[in-house]
């Protein structure tokens, strides 16, 4: 370290910092996509279960109030 410093470059973002930010952005996007898929599956399952429950209740109602001779 005997050579003299002749110039200095200042930057708000370093190259490695930019790469890290890009990796984080990609990871965040992937997590959002996975979360969207999980919520979609949950909503489909909830709709199906709600529909099945409605059919059961409807049938039970018909059976309980039908006139038997």
Element layout with pairings:
Layout: H1 15-65
Can you tell me about this structure?
The protein has 69 residues and is an all-alpha fold. The chain has a domain at 39-63. Helices cover 74% and strands 0% of the residues. The protein is built from 1 helix and no strands. The longest helix has 51 residues, at 15-65. The chain is rod-shaped and about 100 Å long.
Residue-averaged pLDDT, rounded?
Answer: 81
Largest sheet: none
* Cα-atom radius of gyration: 31 Å
Helix content estimate = over 70%
Number of DSSP-assigned strands = 0
Provide a count of the helices: 1
Class from secondary-structure proportions = mainly alpha
Low-confidence spans: none
* SSE pattern: H
What does the overall shape look like? rod-shaped
Q: Terminal Cα separation, in Å?
A: 107 Å
Proportion in β-strands? under 5%
């Amino acid at each position: 370290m005997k050579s003299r410093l002749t110039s200095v470059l200042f930057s708000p973002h370093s190259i490695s910092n930019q790469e890290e930010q890009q990796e984080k952005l990609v990871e965040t996007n992937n997590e959002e996509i996975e979360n969207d898929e999980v919520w979609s599956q949950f909503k489909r399952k909830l709709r199906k279960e709600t529909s099945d429950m409605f059919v059961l209740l409807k049938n039970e109602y018909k059976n309980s109030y039908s006139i038997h001779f």
